[in-house]
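Input sequence (121 aa), recorded before submission:
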Amino acid sequence: MNAKRPFQVNGLEMPDRFPSPDEIERHLVRSRQLRAEATLGVLAAARRALTPLLRTGGTPPSRWWREMRLRRDAAGRARSEEQRLYRELAAYDDRELDDLGVRRADIRAIVRGREPVPAFE
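Predicted structure, token format:
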């Protein structure tokens, strides 16, 4: 706080005078113009992106969904395989894992195809 300017806080200070209603109205009008221009720009970009797709007569959304389903299904199959492999390795006892050169703590990394963290010795 400052004795001369009691509303000054952390280097931010109140203006010497408040804007007049006309100045406020000019700012509001300008902000509305900027918002309208931004909205128009977004709509124009969407139109430019969609026009070639609509001209081809195809149904791109259905292709997109089909590819997304294929990716999801492939990820699900990979996850199922990881789970199966994890269960298989976790079923071994410590002696069998030691014969394979694997620590129980390394199973998750091995299943995910990563390099196991070296053990402290």
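Checked by second reader. Residues 42 and 48 are 10 Å apart (CA to CA).
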